[in-house]
Design brief:
single chain; 142 residues; alpha+beta; Thiol Ester Dehydrase, Chain A; five-stranded antiparallel sheet; 3 helices; globular
């Protein structure tokens, strides 16, 4: 998964509730970390998801891929990186990396992607309205 510029970065501290009995981050929680990064990138660089929802649209996840490279543990400070990889008529894709600083070097813990469909409240595929499309496309011009 290639991270396309620009790349949005946000830090996240692993809480106890993110971990399993061995103090390792439970695998499904990386999808939450992806969502944290994606939501904050959209809020900062395009528009809050709430604005999309106010137009009667939602962007459900239709596909995910995660590749686990190393575990994160309780109290680790993670660096979540997100990039917009693709924007189509009725869908978009984001790429992610979750890293941790180990002795001055960033260590890749997980990489992945999510695909999202643009659907109306009845669950029907709907093209992105032009104003939303333009705001999302503007991410690439940062």
């Amino acid at each position: 998964m290639t991270m396309h510029e620009p790349v949005f970065r946000i830090k996240y501290r692993v809480i106890y509730g993110d971990t399993d009995a061995g103090s390792v981050v439970y695998n499904a929680n990386y999808l939450r970390f992806f969502e944290i990064g994606r939501t904050e990138m959209m809020r900062s660089w395009a528009m809050p998801y709430q604005e999309i929802e106010q137009q009667g649209l939602i962007l459900p996840v239709t596909e995910t891929y995660l590749r686990y490279k190393a575990p994160a543990r309780y109290d680790d400070l993670l660096n979540i990186s997100v990039s917009l990889a693709e924007l189509k008529k009725v869908s978009c894709r984001f790429h992610y990396r979750v890293l941790r600083n180990d002795d001055g070097k960033e260590r890749l813990l997980v990489k992945g992607l999510t695909n999202h469909a643009c659907v109306n409240r009845q669950g029907r595929l709907t093209p992105f309205p032009e104003d939303i499309r333009e705001k999302i496309m503007a991410i690439w011009n940062r």
